[in-house]
Structure formats: structure tokens, C-alpha cells
Amino acid sequence: MLCALAGFVAMVSPLCDPKASPCAIRLKRLLDQVYGRRIISGQCDDKYLPFIKEATGGLEPAMMGYDFNGICPSQKGNFDVDKAIAWHKRNGLVTFQWHWISPDADGDFYTDKFNLAKTLGAPGSQSYKNLVRDIDLVGAALKRLDKAGVPVIWRPLHEAEGKWFWWGKSGGEACKKLYRLMFERITKVHDAHNLIWTWTSYAGEKEDWYPGDSMVDLVVCDYENPSSWSNLQSRFGDRKMLGLGEEGKLPDPVSLGKRPWLYFLTWAYMIEDEKKGNTKEWIRRVYRDSRVLTLSDLPKWQ
């Protein structure tokens, strides 16, 4: 049963991509049905699945988080597409982010060496060509997932507002321009339409970082603080679903009455971090709560 929380009205809206694949439409329909009723459990990095199954007595998260880190030419390769296809075949939900190293291969994703604003202003430069090359590598990977019928909650340029990653260091205008470039190339050049386009926001920033409703389906925050829900709800809640794109401690399902997040995604190793509160007792309690949707709870939605 998916009974709505008292006083909560979920808004159903079409995907921002007018050519959305049937698989993306089916996933959006499922998310609409869940929102405000239950919270989808998620875990980043599937190597932690055995730990979760042992802690919960056999339960698994409904959603797995994957990453395109490793896909750039100077790296050793990325194998998460195959993993995502396998998880989808188990009826699981899939989300991807991208820890994108410098397109110039002169640093990692935290580098100060790659100047995004300068690069976007010089479309004939090698740096710009490298930028587009990397987007095209991810675009091809997302198209492969589309052909396999795998819809993806796609969370590019995550945590840009924090300005610790190179895609955020040049500020909001440059980041929005990059996001729009990515949207255009992935949907028009690569013809990938299997995506729930997701923006990570803290909503407390004075600078405008939001790419716009026409290119965003879902808004999430990373690592909830006491004002996260109210900030995002006041800015986006009348038109976008809200989720927890990354989280440390598993959220208390009791809080759903006041903060009905769509999903949570525990960040990799943090699931094992008892100092953050993720004791095996707590993990079991959260996963076994009737308000939390696990893999075995998902209806056959594909």
C-alpha cells in the first residue's frame, strides 16, 4: 500500500525531455507513486551489498548508485554501465553521478587548474574540445543504457554550489552553461532519452545556480541539515520532487512525516561508519521500517 502522508500532495509533472524514453516514463510514474508515501532506500557502490544484507537479515536497497569516474581517456576505464544493467535486470533502480576529472588531465575533480569559465568562452580551444570529448564519452554510455532499457536518475555536476569541484569553482553562470551544454549533447547528439535529470542544490546560496525547470526533473540535496527540507521546499517544492542525493547516516523514517524525501543514497563506505550512527542495529531498523522501500518491496515496474 502506498498511502499518502497526511497533508502531503505530490505533484505529477512530465519529464523535462520531451522525447523521454518509455523506460524513463515508467520510472517517473513509479517515483510519482512513491513520493510522499514512502522513501526509497539507496546505496552507492554495490560492494557494500553483502554488508547490508547481513545487517538487515537479507534486505537490499531499492536503488544502487553508480559513477562514471574512470571514463576519461587518461583513466583506466569505467565498468559501472554493466553493473547498472545487471541491477536493472533485478528490478532495481539506478542512479549515476560523475566524479569528472579535469578534461585537460592536469588534476582530479578538485583541481584549481581547469578554468571552466575561460574554457566555455573559447570554444575553439583544446580545453573546450576536451570538455566536449568527455561529455560525449558519458553520452555514449548513457545511450548504451537507453538501448538496454535502463532508466537513470542522472545527477551531473553534483555539489557544484559547494565550489570544491572544478565545475563549481567558476561560479553559477559558468556551471549552468556547462549543464545546458551537457543536456543538449546528451539528448540531441547522442539521442539518449532515458534520464531523470537531477540537480543538487543547497538552496541557501545567494548566487543562482539552478539550470532551470526545462532541464531539471528532480532536485536533491547532499547531506541533510536542519534547514535543507524547508529551503528546498520553499524554492522548488511546488513543482519538483525532492530527494537526498547523498547521505551519511541513514535517515530516520519517522522524519518522513515532516520531510518526505523521495529517496536517500548512503555514500559508499559511510554505511559501515558506526561513528556516523550507522550501527547494524540502526541499519536493520531503517531497512525494516514499513515506510522504507527496499528492493523486494518494489513493484514490477519495468
Structure description:
- The protein has helices at 22-34, 49-56, 80-89, 116-120, 126-147, 166-169, 172-189, 228-236, 280-287, and strands at residues 39-40, 42-44, 63-67, 93-97, 152-155, 195-200, 218-222, 241-247, 264-266, 292-293.
- The chain is α/β, with parallel strands linked by helices and 302 residues long.
- It has a single domain, classed as Glycosidases (TIM Barrel).
- The strands form two sheets. The protein has an eight-stranded parallel β-sheet with strand order 2-3-4-5-6-7-8-9.
- The two termini are 19 Å apart.
- The model has no long low-confidence stretch (mean pLDDT 95).
Report the portion of residues in β strands: 5-15%
What class would the helix/strand composition place it in?
Answer: alpha/beta
Named CATH topology = TIM Barrel
Largest sheet: 8 strands, parallel
> How many beta-strand elements?
10
Question: Could you state the CATH homologous superfamily?
Answer: Glycosidases
The CATH architecture classification is Alpha-Beta Barrel
* Count of helical stretches: 9
Helix % is: 25-40%
Q: Taking Cα atoms only, what radius of gyration do you get, to the nearest Å?
A: 19 Å
Helix and strand element order = HEEHEHEHHEHHEEHEEHE
What is the spatial order of strands in the main beta sheet? 2-3-4-5-6-7-8-9
Shape: globular
Give the end-to-end Cα distance, rounded to a whole number of Å: 19 Å
Averaged pLDDT = 95
Report low-confidence residues grouped into runs of 5 or more. none
The total tally of domains equals 1
